[in-house]
Amino acid sequence: MKVESSFLLGVATFFGIIAISYWFTAYEDGGATMLVGVTALGFLPGSYYYFWHRRFKGYKYFFWGKLDHVVGTRPEDRSDATIADGAGVINSFPGSSVWPFCLGVGAFTLLLAFVFGAWLALVGVSLILTALVGVTAESRRGGRH
Amino acid sequence: MTDVIVPQVVGEDYAHPHEEHGATGLMKWITTTDHKVIGMSYMITAIALFYIAGLLALGIRVQLTTPHGTFISFQQFNELFTMHGSIMLYLFAGPFAFGGLANYIVPLQVGAPDMAFPRLNALSYWLYLGGSIMMLMGFVVAGGAASFGWVAYAPLSTATYTPGSGQDLWIMALVLTGFSAIFTGVNLVATIFYLRAPGMTMFRMPIFTWNMLVTGILILIAFPVLTAALIMLFADRHFGTKIYEVTGCHTTTGLVDTHACGSAVLWQNLFWFFGHPEVYILALPYFGMVTEILPVFSRKPVFGYKGMVFATMSIAALSTGVWAHHMFTTGTVLLPFFSLMSLLIAVPTGIKFFNWIGTMWRGELVYTTPMLMSIGFLFAFLMGGVTGVMLASPPIDFFVHTTYFVVAHFHQVLFGSAVFAGFAGFYYWFPKMFGRMLNDRLGRLQFGLLFVGFWVTFMPQYILGLRGMPRREASYPAGLGWQSWNIASTIGAFMIAISFAVMLVNIWVSWRYPVPAGDNPWDAHTLEWFTTSPPPHHNYTHLPQIRSERPTWDYNHPDAPTIPHGRGPHTNGHGPYSGNGAGPPGHGNGSSAGVAQEVPAT
Known about the structure:
The complex is a heterodimer.
Chain A: H1 2-26, H2 29-56, H3 99-116, H4 119-141
Chain B: H1 26-31, H2 35-63, H3 74-110, H4 118-137, H5 165-194, H6 207-238, H7 264-298, H8 305-319, H9 335-344, H10 346-360, H11 369-391, H12 394-400, H13 404-434, H14 440-466, H15 483-512, H16 551-556
Helix pairs in contact in B: 2-3, 2-4, 2-15, 3-4, 3-5, 3-6, 3-7, 3-13, 4-5, 5-6, 6-7, 6-8, 7-8, 7-11, 7-13, 8-10, 11-13, 11-14, 13-14, 14-15
């Protein structure tokens, strides 16, 4: 996770510097706000990944709270990992599902309602709610694949 | 109930192959969550929209062949250039790259069974398709399609100047495709961070995957701003807010009431804060495709792997700090800051060019269609880049702003990347996606027509711009010497159109008279060429050892493994032995098939 966290923290550092220098040269609030937003975009996940990077190294928190055993890095972060090291459940991948389509049509209809009239929103919202219920139930059940 | 993927060591039989269950036919395309099918849907939709937008461009060019063109009305002309730009930028170039090819290729390149969030991926596609249909619906509603340019500058885009539901459909379509892009960005970043195969460290990922990671971050930076700005624009048009609106804010005594008044230039700030990273969202994936293609057809590893990665990051980082160079003439922006940042982008882009040339240098070049298209990209993008450096300088920008010079510049950049590099990628990965080849002779014919047509179309536009012809004008006076250059440009545009007719013929030939491709027709390097063509459900039944950024090459050529870049005396980049992919003597001991030498931990 080290490269991932450095990558995102690099985003935060760069845009932090740019935001400060932009604010003190341009005095323009719109752009400075957006640059601060980008800084946060890099900092929040970046520090989260850094936290996990330290956890793999055996720290409960960033630099303190030593754990009993070191977990070690993930196989995809080790340059000498064999394919067998990654054996096991990678993730659960839902199979085919009709709900994304339903949700997409619902969003399409809902936004059309802003142009062509509010009655379309009824269709759109019902489709979206149906899809949300459907996708949640499918996740709990496991779905067909 | 859910699929469990167990990566296997090479050589072991895979006992339980995963077959695709579920629906077939149309229902398969509607209910699929497979990244390959979704990527294919994206590509088909995007290429269809590319042809539509190309036809719109031909309409624009025909109108401009005569000084007082009567081919279409002024209103129709406004609709044509708006929809041409909008479809090409929002619905073709971006989604073709990050929704289509990246969706298909990135999980394969990192050895993942699917994208991290398959259902979100499907939702992305349906939102994108809905947005595309919604934007095209503008042509059939009263008042016509959107006509305020693809940038929708306020106050032109407010309800006072461009009423009509075509404009509203355009705004809502971009809200939908904006969410679609954000979801795809999240998906790409999560896939690359969490679903890499064992041994596929970040600095062993193919450059295309690296570029898609950076693009994913750029999407997350840029698209939320656009979506928010569009919702505010819609509120201005219909809900009576005054965010960009500048009419009706005068007091009875004629003074401007600043509290009742919006700021039109705020739209430009918000739009270009999205718009300039968007240019690199459109360019970086195509840089990645070229970086995949050049080494394969030069029979060498990529030159300067880490330099490429850091150049990509630098371009992306700088591109987010240059938005106001589109606004130099508004007089409200800090010229030195934005000029400096814009000029700086030339440095990492120059590094990329250096590395691309270094990759081809002393290689055994094979001039297949993807390679020719990539070389065409180098020329086109270089020309666009050089004029981009010129435009980054405010004195030149003041002179040529809103002329055809700018039009020629961004067409050379975007046509160079999205069309030359994009269709290079299409030709390159077509065998992987369909298991059959495209005809190389027809491909070369297409390249020839495209390359000549491209220069004939856009070089005259530079001259037109320097002679003062403004963009977005449906009519111009005779006697200014503009007509002959316009005719030349139109001839070039029709050559481009013919070249894309050739591509349709090529696809038809491939469909009707298939030539089987095999798993690895190009003797390519990266992981996606290890699996079958087309790949099975969940992509891999087994994986090779990953010891460099070229695992498939290392597996197929155990006598000439890639020398890993990294620290140590024998691992200093690709070294003097990389000329024909051969390793140093004594290093390819072949102790186990496809395993390159050990890499010191970095």
